[in-house]
Specification:
The protein is 52% helix and 12% strand. The chain starts with a strand and ends in a 17-residue tail after the last helix. The chain has three domains: 5-108, Nucleotidyltransferase, domain 5, CATH 3.30.420; 113-206, no CATH class; 217-327, no CATH class. A five-stranded mixed β-sheet has the order 3-2-1-4-5. The chain has a two-stranded antiparallel ribbon with strand order 6-7. By secondary structure, the chain is an alpha/beta fold. Helix 6 (154-167) runs antiparallel to helix 7 (174-205). Strand 4 (48-52), helix 2 and strand 5 form a beta-alpha-beta unit. Residues 7-145 form the Transposase IS110-like N-terminal domain. InterPro entries: Transp_IS110-like_N (IPR002525), Transpos_IS110 (IPR047650), Transposase_20 (IPR003346). Residues 212-293 form the Transposase IS116/IS110/IS902 C-terminal domain. GO terms for molecular function: DNA binding; transposase activity.
Length: 343
């Protein structure tokens, strides 16, 4: 017997379903209210439920999986080509139903509640860092209008702000000075909130042996290691280290016709947050070679631009991360792959 395949278009209140009866060939389209969705699938034989990997998709995937259904999440960009007519809920559900049956389709792994909880900490920290940077730049720009030139760097600039405000007491109104001081207090609160989130990530790291193994890699710190473990989960879902690097957008884009292939810059597809963390870590490795110099990096720097070397190091780090997690290994800086005998 063939399992029934359902195309489910998610929404906040009204969901759209599309499926085909394998026995009669009848096409079914049905709208289901949010509160009635699980009730609908409870009364159905276990089947395949396809959804776009959008907001709340992982929650519904976990709930439907508990009912015995096989859930497949698809990136929205892969569904779009199968929308036949105008974009409606019914057309989207039909496109999802069509997409999930492609033999070469790639699916998104369903995240657990623990993974999403850790990623929520990363998202909140990322937002706090952005807001803090905006506040510092705003204060820097406003004080510059009064002749105050703060030194570069967030910490150095913040240290100079109290002295700068004291020199402006006879030129600025009391209201403006009090507002500036309140902004400085808010920056201190941001620092405290960011430090608290990092403390919680360190506590979570103690129970994650994989995070400790990843942090042994040069350029991989607490944020990168915890974000990768929380995002990927099972690294064996990627067939190779190159596929994982492609998932992060660290491989070249390709264009060509007539058998001629041309490589361009990196694709920048996939998870932007992970790619940014790896790029920052790689830049630290490339810029801070002191005692243990890496001959591979030195040779690459002699013939390629600096940023190209950074991206190449980030790609290498991604492949190393895949090897450690997929093959359950410890990081060895002197590891050399075994030569493969050619018959």
């Amino acid at each position: 017997m063939q399992n029934t395949i359902y195309g489910l278009d998610l929404a906040k209140r009204v969901m759209q379903l599309h499926w085909v009866d394998w026995e009669t060939g009848e096409i079914h389209r049905k709208q289901v209210r949010r509160g009635k969705l699980l009730e609908f699938f409870v009364n159905r034989e276990p089947g395949i439920v396809a959804m776009e990997a959008c907001g709340s998709a992982h929650y519904w995937a976990r709930e439907l999986g508990k009912l015995g259904h096989e859930v497949r999440l698809i990136a929205a960009q892969f569904v779009r080509p199968f929308v036949k007519t105008n974009k409606t809920d019914a057309a989207d559900a039909a496109a999802i139903w069509e997409t999930v049956q492609r033999p070469d389709m790639r699916f998104v792994a369903v995240k657990s509640e623990e993974q999403q909880s850790v990623l929520a900490l990363h998202r909140m920290r990322e937002q706090l860092v952005k807001i803090r940077t905006m506040q510092v730049n705003e204060i820097r720009g406003l004080l510059y209008e009064f002749g105050v030139d703060l030194p570069q760097g967030r910490e150095k600039g913040l240290k100079e702000i109290p002295d700068a405000l004291s020199t402006l007491e006879d030129r600025l109104s009391a209201v403006a000075l009090e507002t500036f001081r309140r902004q400085i207090q808010r920056l201190a609160e941001f620092d405290k909130d960011i430090a608290d989130i990092e403390k919680r990530l360190r506590l979570w790291k103690k129970d994650q042996e994989a995070v400790a193994r990843l942090m042994a890699i040069p350029g991989v710190g607490l944020l990168t290691a915890t974000a990768i473990v929380a995002t990927v989960g099972n690294m064996k879902s990627f067939r190779s280290g190159r596929e994982f690097a492609s998932f992060l957008g660290l491989v070249p884009r390709q264009t060509g016709t007539g058998g001629k292939i041309r490589l361009l810059g990196i694709s920048k597809r996939g998870d932007t947050y992970l790619r940014t963390l790896l790029a920052h870590g790689a830049r630290a490795v490339v810029n801070c070679q002191t005692r243990d110099r890496n001959p591979w990096i030195d040779k690459l720097r002699c013939r390629r631009p600096h940023n190209v070397v950074v991206v190449a190091q980030a790609n290498k780090m991604a492949r190393t991360i895949w090897a450690l997690l997929a093959k359950n290994r410890q990081y060895d800086p002197n590891y050399k792959p075994m030569a493969v005998a050619v018959a």
